RNA sequence: GGUGAGGUGGCCGAGAGGCUGAAGGCGCUCCCCUGCUAAGGGAGUAUAGAGUUUAUAGCUCUAUCGAGGGUUCGAAUCCCUCCCUCACCGCCA
């Protein structure tokens, strides 16, 4: 959510900035609503003020033993006016709120302009794609060839499309990856390990920006009655982790707060029928190790570089070739101010595929969440900045390992960094 | 799931229709006093929003005592619904 100021005096400038990321701000509607809001709010508050004062007088009159009946009637009429004004104000504010909650973040100045991923800018490329003396297979072929490996058939039977069952050494490799990532981030990068709910309430989802606009991307767990608060499965642990500080004011000395968690993530993938239907790339359920940083505003851009570097470390230690891409305005997520994607090399696809997305959200989420910090000697609290990134998507990392470390005989070499987590095993064999 | 008790400011805790944005205490900040320390005295100490404004300064106003609705001229206080916490019982990984 942007500062309300952006929709008042500087609205034209805001519209220009939003146009950079392909969002059209309806300035006419906003201006009209804003004018109504101002008028109604001023009127409502002054009516309120008057009624409060008059009601107190009634109390005093009664205290003096006077007859307050005529006064009561008068103030009662005032109350009716107030109710009308209040209702109108509420309507206008709800309309404004709905629009404002649907406006994406403003891109940072150094974000390249562009409509889609075509205009993303490659920043660095690390590692060499492996050269094979044979035709490399994709992870599905590799995983299914193993006696106990990837089993999409069983998953389809017990649940449906876009789910997987992993078995044996592949399941263990998957577990090893999460262990390795968590250890790296907690022991070397200074994150606090956490375990969090994968079902969250809607206040949390609004806080990080998934709601109200992107509800169809989520799986919902509805309450059995209308009054029950509905909840949803998290699409990323960013939601629970970032919401740690919702409605909190933290002392500046406590920042930065660096959190990591391993969790299952759930995405309905509405609208991606037919995309990446084969394999583990796009699943309804997948595991991810998430990195979240809550920082002082002036530190957030540096923190983005740092956090991205932490995710890169995972790829480097696993010996996976990747590139780092700066997303253009049109390809960024709703809440992001600046985003780097890390893309890992997938031999079978002969291309780099997203395995991590690291974003600085600025104060966008913090404003929705009322997540603030208090500086020493300053009375008024200030919005903090929030960042998050995958460190990494575990399923996709598994894909990358199977494909990049595959051998002609169908076995897969275990990267050295993972061997301690695999009882020393050097390779997975058929 | 059942029964009971509760949800008030950073914390503890009063208040039971008007004079309560909220007593008192603790904590914290500043000042005074005290040759260190301890003790003592004084002042201050929520958040959000609106208007005014060059201003994130001041001033004025509004809202907030778990959430939402209702009664009333007026609700922290009364009524309803929901959420949450605690205790005991049942069930359970």
Which architecture of the largest domain per CATH?
A: 2-Layer Sandwich
Q: Order of strands in the sheet with the most strands? A: 1-11-12-13-16-10-9-4
Distance between the termini: 52 Å
Q: Work out the count of structural domains.
A: 2
What is the CATH H-level superfamily of the largest domain? Bira Bifunctional Protein, Domain 2
Q: Helix coverage percent of residues?
A: 25-40%
Low-confidence stretches: none
Strand proportion: 15-25%
Rg = 27 Å
- Overall morphology: elongated
- The ordered string of helix (H) and strand (E) elements is HHHEHEHEHEEHEEHEEEHEEEHEEEHEE
Instruction: Give the integer mean of the pLDDT values.
Output: 92
CATH topology (fold) name of the largest domain: BirA Bifunctional Protein, domain 2
Oligomer type: single chain
How many runs of DSSP E, i.e. beta strands?
A: 18
Largest sheet: 8 strands, mixed
Task: Provide a descriptive summary of the structure in words.
The protein is α+β, with helices and mostly antiparallel strands. Strand 12 and strand 13 form a beta hairpin. The model has no long low-confidence stretch (mean pLDDT 92). Helices cover 37% and strands 20% of the residues. It is built from eleven helices and 18 strands. It folds into two domains: 77 residues, Serine-tRNA synthetase, tRNA binding domain (Helix Hairpins); 312 residues, BirA Bifunctional Protein, domain 2 (2-Layer Sandwich). Helix 4 crosses helix 11 and helix 6 crosses helix 11. The strands form five sheets. Strands 1-11-12-13-16-10-9-4 form an eight-stranded mixed β-sheet. It has a three-stranded antiparallel β-sheet with strand order 5-7-6. Strands 8-14-15 form a three-stranded mixed β-sheet, with no helix packed on it. The longest helix is centred in the first third of the chain and has 37 residues.
């Amino acid at each position: 959510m942007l500062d309300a100021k952006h929709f008042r005096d500087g609205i034209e400038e805001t519209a220009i900035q939003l146009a950079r990321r392909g969002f059209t701000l309806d300035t006419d509607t906003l201006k009209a609503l804003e004018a109504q809001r101002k008028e109604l709010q001023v009127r409502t508050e002054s009516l309120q003020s008057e009624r409060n004062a008059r009601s107190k007088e009634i109390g005093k009159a009664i205290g003096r033993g006077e007859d307050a009946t005529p006064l009561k009637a008068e103030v009662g009429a005032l109350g009716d006016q107030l109710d009308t004004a209040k209702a109108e104000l509420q309507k206008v504010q709800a309309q404004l709120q709905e629009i404002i909650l649907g406006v994406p973040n403003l891109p940072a100045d150094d974000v390249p302009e562009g409509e889609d991923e075509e205009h993303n800018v490659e920043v660095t490329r690390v590692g060499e794609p492996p050269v094979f003396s044979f035709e490399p297979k994709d992870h599905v072929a590799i995983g299914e060839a193993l006696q106990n490996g990837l089993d999409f058939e069983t998953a389809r039977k017990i649940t449906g499309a876009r789910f997987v069952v992993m078995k044996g050494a592949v399941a263990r490799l998957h577990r090893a990856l999460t262990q390795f990532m968590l250890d790296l981030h907690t022991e070397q990068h200074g994150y606090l390990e956490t375990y969090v709910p994968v079902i969250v309430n809607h206040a949390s989802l609004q806080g990080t920006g998934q709601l109200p606009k992107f509800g169809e991307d989520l799986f919902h767990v509805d309450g059995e009655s209308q009054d029950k608060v509905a909840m949803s499965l998290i699409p990323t642990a960013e939601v629970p982790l970032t919401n740690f500080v919702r409605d909190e004011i933290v002392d500046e000395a406590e920042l930065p707060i660096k959190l990591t968690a391993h969790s299952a993530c759930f995405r309905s993938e509405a609208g991606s029928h037919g995309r990446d239907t084969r394999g583990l790339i796009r699943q309804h359920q997948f595991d991810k190790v998430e990195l979240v940083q809550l920082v002082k505003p002036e530190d957030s851009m540096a923190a983005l570089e740092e956090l991205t570097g932490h995710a890169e470390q995972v790829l480097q230690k696993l010996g996976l070739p990747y590139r780092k891409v700066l997303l253009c305005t049109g390809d960024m997520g709703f809440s992001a101010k600046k985003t780097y994607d890390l893309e890992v090399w997938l031999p079978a696809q002969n291309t780099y595929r997203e395995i991590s997305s690291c974003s600085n959200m600025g104060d966008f989420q913090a404003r929705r969440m009322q997540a603030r910090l208090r500086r020493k000697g300053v009375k008024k609290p200030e919005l903090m900045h929030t960042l998050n990134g995958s460190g990494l998507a575990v399923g996709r990392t598994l894909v990358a390992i199977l494909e990049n470390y595959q051998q002609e005989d169908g076995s897969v070499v275990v990267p050295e960094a993972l061997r301690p987590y695999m009882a020393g095993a050097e390779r997975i064999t058929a």
